[in-house]
């Protein structure tokens, strides 16, 4: 019984850590892609630089918010002391 509980808690911690890592990698790749595509768009149409940059910053902020929520969920799973599965 005790080993089953410890094993379940270990899996929950491991899953939370892996989940937080995947979220960080995904957010980094997404924001990097947005930045690269925005720079390419600005290079092709310099007169639209203001609109492109504004859209890029808004989308990057939305990605950051979603990734922050996901990391908070992972931390809540990791910090939950009384796992009841």
Structure overview:
- The chain has 85 residues and is an all-alpha fold.
- The chain has two helices and no strands.
- The longest helix is centred in the N-terminal third of the chain and has 43 residues, at 2-44.
- The two termini are 13 Å apart.
Based on CA inertia axes, which overall geometry fits? rod-shaped
Which strand-content bin applies to the residues? under 5%
Task: Point out poorly predicted stretches.
Answer: none
Average residue-wise pLDDT: 87
For the biggest sheet, the summary is:
none
How large is the count of helical segments?
2
What is the string of SSEs from the N terminus onward?
A: HH
* Helix percentage range: over 70%
Rg result: 19 Å
- Helix/strand-derived category reads mainly alpha
- Kindly, what is the distance between the CA atoms of the first and last residues, rounded to a whole number of angstroms? 13 Å
Number of strands: 0
Question: How is this structure best summarized?
Answer:
It is a multi-pass membrane protein. The chain contains two helices and no strands.
Topology:
Blueprint: H1 2-44, H2 49-79
Helix pairs in contact: 1-2
Organism: Negadavirga shengliensis
Membrane topology: Multi-pass membrane protein
Transmembrane segments: 6-34, 55-79
Question: Notable features of this structure?
Answer:
single chain, 85 residues, mainly alpha, 2 helices, 87% helix, 0% strand, rod-shaped
């Amino acid at each position: 019984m005790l080993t089953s509980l410890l094993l379940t808690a270990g899996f929950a911690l491991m899953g939370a850590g892996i989940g937080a890592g995947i979220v960080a990698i995904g957010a980094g790749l997404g924001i990097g892609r947005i930045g690269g595509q925005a720079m390419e768009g600005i290079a092709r149409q310099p007169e639209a630089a203001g609109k492109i940059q504004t859209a890029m910053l808004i989308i990057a902020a939305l990605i950051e918010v979603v990734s922050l929520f996901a990391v908070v969920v992972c931390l809540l799973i990791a910090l939950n002391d009384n796992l009841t599965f």
